[in-house]
Amino acid sequence: MSPTLNRRAFLSRSALVGCSLAASPLLTRVSFAAAPWEGRLVVIILRGGMDGLDVVQPHGAPEFAALRQGLSAGPAGGAVDLDGFFALHPALSPLMPLWRAGDLGFVHAVSTPYRDKRSHFDGQDLLEAGTSSLEGVRDGWLNRMLTLLPGVEARTAFAIGQGEMKLLAGPAPVADWSPDADLAISSQALRLADLVMQEDPALHAALAEATMLSADGDAATGKARPHVRIADFAAEQLRGETRVASFSINGWDTHNRQDRALSRALERLGDTILALRDGVGPEIWQKTAIIAMTEFGRTVRVNGTGGTDHGTGGAMVLAGGAIRGGRVYGDWPGLAEADLYDRRDLMPTGDVRAPAAWIMRALTGLDRTALDGTVFPGLDMGRDPGLLL
Known about the structure:
This is DUF1501 domain-containing protein. It holds the Pfam family DUF1501. This protein is an alpha/beta fold. It is 33% helix and 13% strand. It has helices spanning 7-12, 52-55, 64-67, 96-101, 120-129, 141-147, 187-197, 201-221, 226-238, 258-285, 353-364, 368-375, and strands at residues 40-46, 56-57, 80-81, 87-88, 104-111, 157-160, 175-177, 244-249, 288-294, 314-319, 328-329, 350-351.
């Protein structure tokens, strides 16, 4: 081997390896130190603005049916009654066993501090930043949480999928994996890489993990649909050292034919939650909290194309054996026109960050000052809603 073939030369020729450096953890610091806490946290970003009024339908509100003509308005339209006032969209009916077991819950009428402009890009950025504005913010709230905990290493948290997960951006080490990442490398090339990197323990360990993750991904996911592949991989990591996993599910921007588009998106969400439950197994499931959150809700009234437009107040989905489910949390604002935000949207009565903060407090033991001072600066967490067992 030529003495001029050093690490830089090897990396510059990495195309020969067939590995996308952007999609694999090849350059991520790796450690297999003991995990700092026992609970598992999964955060799913629902990109596009999920219509919380269609997912968790307030069929007990007298105005609801008239406002939602053309959509599945309550049990008469196929929704599954939850508590006499709220009903669950029929596409999520496979999750009803979780509801009855207390492993599924919802928080209604929540939003980020974002108001009025209703831009997906700004709304998602603010959701992932976890702040009241984006000025000077370069990290995400999950990463800020990790910086406050002892013993955090790269495998403690995973950002999964092709899209950027800004809520995990920041100084704390985070591993990345995409279902399309593949370390296709011959045994000879792998041996060459091993020789080149043997004098650098950190890079040598990173190569070893990249090889392992590529194999793990293939074994864990097979030929399943992408969202199930992601859930399967997340579950496999959560059975081990990983304590935090985050990924996104798209398809929630339902301006047209919401009856079809939302059903497909909800089916993906339901599949994902059930794959996580089955993948982690009963013991880990009891320690797991899943938070599914979106950048904003949608208009109360249906538009002229059978859809809904960008709104304000929405809903978040909670699942997992650690969740105190079987109930819809939040302060219901009402649907009378005078009760709406700008007379068009569900009025937000809670900050979507507060339930996430209380869940993190219960899982990790972080105190309230750390959560509403550093993780979510400026947040008023309010009283403890008791979301975890």
